[in-house]
Structure to design on (558 residues):
């Protein structure tokens, strides 16, 4: 029972809203809450050792960074909205909220280099530029917090920042106290103008100083980047940083993005060893919105960053972003893949040709019952065809897999050894510098087992499917499932029917079941839930998870 609950209640992509909860439901919730509390207590000390020892960034952080949009643009003669200023930052914050980015997970608003005055105040403390940030950083943070966002700041481990502003090199403790007093939530610590041999003392010193302030501040380090091409001391870095830049700064062009992708492929085994809850490799910013990227390239960066499990920080002008690019950045399923804390870092597992790479994220836990594939075409001119066959999943020892197209939100069917029960291969045409993203659900079905073909058994199978649809109709009559639910819900429904040996060989029966599934899908697509604030979102997620206990209570096991 606990195993079932553990799977159902943690599966965030299954989002169902309920208006009432039964006594059975509340009892099961209490059992689950006790179980989670017990696990949390037993492993609390271990969790505290995660990156920077602050308990933060248990999933890859998300947000927006000023650097590529505003850089060090301190000339505000054309207006404060057109330079690096508090007014421009508040404009971005408004769009993060109004356009749905905050609710999708983009909650950090990070001020990069050039935010400060050229000098410290009379007490030797950092202070914001008085012209561009007239209300000060604490006030700006309060404004962001009112909007449900978090404030991120920038400093440097050397005597001055990369752009020549005051650094924290000799004032680490004092600056940590200043950032905490401003109620900063995240701090990027750069590595300019200092000897890299001092990193092993200065970065840990900053992490300790931040923790001693009593405020939890997520720490982003540039440590590995400045040691490259020498091998960085990742065990030490992971102990003191929540996330770390590995490679060159991303630029607003495709060639720069491609170099980062190649770096992660070349070093994937090393990087994966230190990539986990509270400590993440950082592939640098999403440049989606740059005119130098096509929409396919923007989609490719979003998909590959998601399967790599790296932080998702945009650096663009949200005020002018096209609807198509907004949809890419707000793709619920890609974000869910990225934020799954139990999924390992995606790796390149196959090269189908000189141009096609398959990035693969394997399942590791019952809470993530799927495999993710990104089919990536490096070719800048030609569309490439790739076949997906059973041999790609030989490690999973299953006879059937349900294939779902993430970007087109379309369930494609079953992959099997032959065409008797499904399809022996799926062909995908990947656009130049583009991707196809698949979720693959292993089906726990023995296709060699004898199948009951009696009329009564077929009627029972159809009755079961209709009963499930009827229950779903009751659920969706008041509140509706979001698009992110569909692939997982359909996959689980398929799996349940298959496990009951209701997977028919007859084309007529299969057609009936497929029609039922399609009806289920259309019901789920009728509407979506509007969640206006973070508290309501948290409450609805709890209700959605709890309802699934009742939902699966009515579906017999194998």
């Amino acid at each position: 029972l606990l195993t079932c609950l553990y799977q159902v209640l943690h599966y965030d992509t299954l989002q169902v809203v309920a208006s009432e909860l039964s006594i059975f439901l509340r009892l099961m919730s209490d059992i689950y809450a006790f179980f989670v509390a017990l696990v949390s207590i037993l492993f609390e000390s271990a969790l505290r050792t995660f990156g920077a020892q602050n308990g933060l960034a248990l999933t890859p952080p998300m947000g927006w960074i000023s650097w590529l949009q505003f850089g060090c643009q301190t000339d505000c003669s054309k207006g404060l909205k057109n330079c690096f200023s508090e007014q421009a930052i508040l404009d971005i914050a408004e769009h993060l909220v109004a356009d749905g980015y905050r609710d999708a997970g983009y909650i950090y608003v990070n001020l990069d280099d050039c935010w400060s005055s050229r000098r410290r105040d009379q007490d030797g403390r950092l202070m914001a530029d008085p012209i561009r940030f007239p209300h000060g950083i604490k006030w700006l943070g309060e404004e962001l917090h009112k909007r449900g966002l978090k404030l991120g700041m920038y400093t440097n481990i050397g005597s001055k920042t990369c752009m020549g502003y005051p650094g924290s090199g000799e004032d680490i403790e004092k600056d940590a106290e200043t950032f905490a007093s401003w109620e900063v939530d995240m701090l990027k610590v750069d590595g300019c103008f200092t000897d890299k041999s001092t990193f092993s003392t200065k970065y840990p010193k900053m992490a300790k100083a931040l923790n001693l302030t009593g405020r939890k501040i997520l720490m982003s380090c540039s440590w590995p980047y400045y040691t490259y091409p020498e091998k960085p001391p990742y065990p030490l870095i992971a102990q003191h940083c929540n996330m770390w830049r590995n490679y060159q700064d991303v630029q607003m062009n495709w060639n720069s993005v491609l170099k980062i992708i190649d770096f992660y492929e070349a070093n994937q085994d090393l990087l994966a060893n230190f990539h986990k809850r509270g400590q993440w490799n950082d592939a640098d910013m999403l440049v989606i919105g740059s005119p130098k990227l096509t929409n396919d390239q923007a989609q490719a960066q979003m998909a590959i960053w998601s399967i790599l499990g790296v932080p998702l920080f945009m650096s663009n002008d949200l005020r002018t972003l096209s609807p198509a690019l907004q949809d890419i950045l707000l793709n619920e399923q890609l974000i869910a893949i990225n934020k799954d804390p139990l999924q390992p870092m995606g790796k390149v597992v196959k090269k189908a040709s000189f141009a096609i790479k398959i990035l693969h994220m394997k399942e590791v836990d019952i809470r993530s019952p799927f495999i993710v594939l990104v089919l990536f075409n490096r070719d800048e001119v030609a569309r490439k065809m790739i076949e997906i066959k059973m041999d790609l999943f030989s490690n999973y020892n299953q006879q059937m897999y349900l294939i779902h197209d993430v970007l087109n939100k379309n369930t494609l069917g079953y992959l099997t050894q032959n065409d008797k029960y499904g399809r022996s291969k799926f062909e995908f045409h990947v656009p130049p510098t583009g991707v196809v993203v698949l979720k693959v659900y292993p089906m726990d079905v023995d296709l060699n087992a004898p199948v009951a073909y009696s009329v009564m058994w077929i009627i029972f199978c159809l009755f079961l499917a209709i009963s499930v649809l009827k229950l779903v109709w009751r659920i969706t009559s008041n509140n509706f499932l979001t698009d992110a639910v569909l692939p997982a819900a359909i996959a689980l429904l398929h799996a349940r029917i298959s496990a009951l040996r209701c997977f028919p060989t007859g084309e007529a029966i299969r057609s009936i079941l497929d029609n039922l599934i399609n009806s289920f899908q259309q019901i789920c697509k009728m509407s979506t839930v509007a969640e206006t604030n973070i508290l309501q979102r948290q409450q609805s997620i709890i209700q959605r998870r709890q309802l699934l206990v009742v939902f699966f209570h009515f579906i017999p096991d194998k």
Notes: The mean pLDDT is 80. DSSP finds 20 helices and 16 strands in the chain. The chain has three domains: 2-44+449-553, 60-339, 347-443. Residues 164 and 269 are 36 Å apart (CA to CA).
